[in-house]
């Protein structure tokens, strides 16, 4: 079945450091890929998405590129801020399916 | 637009008690979902609905029931609560569109923290 694997956290960085959170997936066909972010005490919000191979999703300085050859969708940011502290979830959705499949989440803490 | 709202925000139950969680959305979305979030487990789908009057089982449906009598509301019921159902519950909805393409994002509510003693 479909699955998403994220790097395990927690991840702790200093402000202005470079961030990478790895995400790989297993799915039939060509799924859409998503990164969601959950700030403390809140629900999940869509951060970015990509719907086909080689697409790059970007938002708020975060980027992720849909790599079909490596079945990956790694999240990156060049310079993190304290306000980026949150839990990040990678997810996929196959065409024709109503359901998202989530990874287990990666907690990021950014220290000043 | 309020988006997706959930009531209550917090609840403490005793084992064996019943309760209903309410999810409401004002975005005219066709699809609605209930998830539970547990430490180290990510989000797991409990039940979902693809339209008014329809429901379907997700990954972890046992011990829960749902109803979608109105398009804007999706209710999650626990008939006899157990400590294993202590969790944070999230509702989500998804807009209509080309399902075949899989593009449609889900919009999440703020969550309900449930403790079963």
Summarize the structure.
Chain A has 112 residues and is an all-beta fold. Helices cover 0% and strands 50% of the residues of chain A.
Describe the structure.
The complex is a heterodimer of chains A (112) and B (117). Chain A has 112 residues and is mostly beta strands. Helices cover 0% and strands 50% of the residues of chain A. Chain A has no helices and twelve strands. Chain A has strands at 3-6, 11-14, 19-21, 23-26, 32-38, 44-50, 56-59, 62-65, 75-77, 86-93, 101-102, 106-111. The radius of gyration of chain A is 13 Å and the shape is globular. Chain A starts with a strand and ends with a strand. Chain B has 117 residues and is mainly β. Chain B has strands at residues 4-7, 10-13, 19-25, 31-38, 42-49, 56-57, 64-67, 73-78, 87-94, 107-108, 112-116. In chain B, a hairpin with a 6-residue loop joins strand 5 (42-49) and strand 6 (56-57). The model of chain B has no long low-confidence stretch (mean pLDDT 91). At the A-B interface, strand 5 and strand 6 of A face strand 5, strand 9 and strand 10 of B.
